[in-house]
Design brief:
The complex is a heterodimer of chains A (504) and B (129). Helices cover 45% and strands 20% of the residues of chain A. Chain A is of the alpha/beta class and 504 residues long. In chain A, the strands form 4 sheets. Chain A has a 5-stranded mixed β-sheet, with helices on one face. A 5-stranded parallel β-sheet of chain A has the order 9-8-10-11-12, sandwiched between helices. A 5-stranded parallel β-sheet of chain A has the order 14-13-15-16-17, with helices on both faces. Chain B has 129 residues and is an alpha/beta fold. Helix content of chain B is 46%, strand content 19%. Chain B is globular. The N and C termini of chain B lie close together (10 Å). The mean pLDDT of chain B is 87. Classes of the chains: A alpha/beta (504), B alpha/beta (129). Chains A and B meet through helix 1, helix 4 and helix 18 of A and helix 1 of B.
């Protein structure tokens, strides 16, 4: 997607730089300034494209957080070395000052780095012969640790009015500023969006002639909102819940730890798991997802489990979905009277849950249907899948795909979107309109740059959306094998059980 | 002379990159897809590999893993060229057996630094001359 925009620009920049070297060697220096303009503008366009793509992702809520653990100090040092030459350009000095032990952070390192680089490069743009200071400290507040980064400069500063418009898009303090100082005018808008995404915020204080101080405050450990992330985050390999072949489970529980544990346990058992944090959203998700099984807690905000159960059983579309109550309230008879299929008491005995879940398990099916109009790609995919011991049937368009499904129902479908005769969207609509085909997991593998609307449409109908080129096909084949295979192990290894124990 | 195997499918990119590397005194061998890259790593005895990740036939990650798994290929440094900086890219490329990674667009002087850092000292000196 964005790759398509960046590659040609990479070539423009590369050739311009090469020609710059060549004209220098040839003694044609008078051509140099023009070539530098080509290169400079191409670089500017590239940063604009990067920023616009970032912002549109943020707006479409498709920006993911990739949290990892790292030493805070390391990021500061790396950022300082990255901006070194930029700071020196206008004869500025960079001072890095950290108070005490900063310790480790668990957050999206790339986004943090980008925020700091944005602020430091801003500071260097608006400061001459001055000092730019990056300060960092760690402090506790609201029951957690926060890291505060402060970027201050001794530059031209801003008026109150300029500060007020600072985080708007393309709203550098003055419209002539862009020409004079460069930049895309999007950096601060992105920085603020990133800070908020990571659970923090950014602030600024400035006076004309007195320099500017930007302050970023982020939680040392980013909290990924579990429900939202599970609902809206585009799935990527290794992170998302695989659409388990054993079936789709919806777990409704207000306790995040309980959700997390059920998610882990059931995923290991080969189920796909979605979660909801209260009764109302649970009910909405049940209507949207039509899961194979629902796990339901009783004491929850907004709508309690009894009400959810009653509503589920009153809805003709949902009444057949088995509901397993998982609660600390011992009201078996009420549960069964309202239509629950099973009743488990918290703390959950995982062996018990496992044996209950086997009753609702969808049988094993290792047939994979791959649909793609690029026959070479199709052949490669088929070979890789067959190597994983899977049976593969192929189709070159959606129409042919449907014919294949009619002959034998596959355990999983790997689907391209852009195809002649019938495209992937048409295929999905036709597939999902047949109740008996609705449960087939579909992986979309596409190079199409999806609009938000297309993305949302696909989300309701597919297990994962993968970008061609971003995906290691061999890895994917391995994961497909896992997804189509019924979990073979009859009992969990002892170690895993004890790991899952502490649910209360 | 230091021999660089450049595995890159995009014609303009490999064209200017190889020419710029040659200007700096490196010998450049080209491969245009992952399988071609693996084959040439085997027969052309490069000192270092610059490996694009989005390649046809075999993608870069698979190519790196294949090179690492092949006992007939000596342990040569591999620098991954990724489409753009993405979280997790670094880990992914390192996990595939690459020694370093460089996000496109190519920052040529930084790339040269990365190449020389990975070459055994005498080779780096020879190339610099």
């Amino acid at each position: 997607m964005s790759h398509e925009l960046r590659t040609p620009l990479s070539a423009v920049i590369g050739y311009a730089e090469m020609l710059e070297e060549e004209v220098e060697d040839l003694g044609q220096e008078h051509l140099l300034s023009d070539l530098k303009k080509i290169e400079g503008n191409a670089r500017h366009l590239l940063s604009l494209i990067n920023d616009v793509l970032d912002l549109s992702k943020i707006e479409a809520e498709r920006m993911d957080i990739f949290a990892e653990s790292f030493e805070t100090r390391t990021v500061i040092d790396e950022v300082a070395s990255t901006v070194g030459s930029l700071v020196a350009k206008k004869n500025n000095r960079l001072v890095v000052d950290s108070e005490g032990d900063l310790g480790a952070m668990h957050t999206d390192q790339v986004k943090l780095r980008q925020c700091l680089i944005n602020l430091l490069s801003n500071a260097s743009k608006f400061t001459e012969n001055g000092t730019i200071t990056l300060r960092a400290r760690r402090a506790a507040g609201d029951g957690r640790d926060w890291i505060t980064f402060e970027v201050s400069d001794t530059g031209i500063g801003m008026t109150q009015e300029q500060v007020g418009r600072l985080f708007e898009r393309f709203a550098q303090a003055d419209s002539s500023t862009t020409r004079k100082f460069g930049g895309t005018g999007l950096g601060l808008a992105i920085t603020r969006a990133f800070c908020r995404l990571l659970g923090g915020d950014i602030g600024v204080r400035s006076e004309p002639g007195e320099g500017t101080v930007f302050t970023i405050r982020l939680p040392a450990e980013v909290e990924t909102p579990p429900d939202e992330a599970e609902l809206t985050a585009p799935a990527t390999i290794g992170e998302a819940t695989p659409h388990g072949a054993a079936g789709l489970v919806l777990a409704i529980d207000d306790d995040p730890h309980a959700r997390e544990l059920m998610m882990r346990f059931l995923s290991k058992e080969g189920f796909a798991v979605r979660t909801a944090a209260d009764g109302l959203s649970g009910l909405e998700m049940a209507r949207m997802l039509k899961p194979d099984v629902i796990l339901l807690d009783v004491t929850m905000p907004k709508m309690d489990g009894w009400t959810v159960l009653t509503e589920l059983k009153a809805d003709p579309e949902l009444t057949d979905i088995p509901v397993i109550m998982i609660t600390i309230i011992d009201e078996h008879s009420l549960g069964f009277a309202l239509g629950a299929s099973d009743y488990l008491l918290k703390p959950v005995e995982w062996t018990k849950l496992k044996s209950v879940m086997t009753r609702y398990r969808t049988p094993d099916n290792s047939l994979v249907l791959a649909v793609d109009d690029d026959e070479d790609a199709l052949q490669r995919t088929a070979t890789l899948l067959e190597r994983e011991g899977l049976d593969v049937v192929t189709a070159v368009n959606g129409q042919e795909g449907l014919e294949r499904v009619a002959v034998q129902k596959p355990g999983l479908i790997l689907l391209d979107l852009v195809m002649p005769v019938m495209d992937g969207f048409g295929f999905l609509n036709a597939l999902r309109s047949r109740p008996e085909w609705r449960d087939i997991p579909v992986l979309v593998l596409t190079s199409k740059d999806l609009t938000r609307e297309e993305f949302e449409r696909l989300q309701g109908q597919t297990s994962r959306i993968l970008m061609k080129g971003d995906v290691d096909l061999r890895e994917l084949a391995g994961q497909i094998r896992v997804m189509t295979r019924k979990t073979a192990s009859e009992a969990l290894p002892a170690g895993q059980e004890s790991e899952l124990e502490p649910i209360r | 002379m230091t021999r660089i195997l450049l595995v890159e499918d995009h014609e303009e990119i490999w064209d200017f990159l190889s020419r710029r590397l040659q200007r700096r005194g490196y010998e450049v061998i080209l491969a245009h897809d992952g399988q071609d890259g693996v084959d040439k790593a085997k027969v052309a005895a490069p000192d270092i590999v610059l490996l694009d990740m989005n390649l046809p036939i075999l993608d870069g990650w698979t190519a790196a893993r294949t090179i690492r798994a092949d006992p007939s290929i000596p342990r040569i440094p591999i620098i991954a060229l990724t489409a753009h900086a993405m979280s997790g890219d670094r880990e992914k490329t390192l996990a595939a057996g690459c020694d370093d990674y460089h996000a496109k667009p190519v920052d040529f002087s930084r790339l040269l630094g990365q190449i020389e850092a990975l070459l055994p000292a005498p080779a780096a000196e020879a190339a610099a001359q």
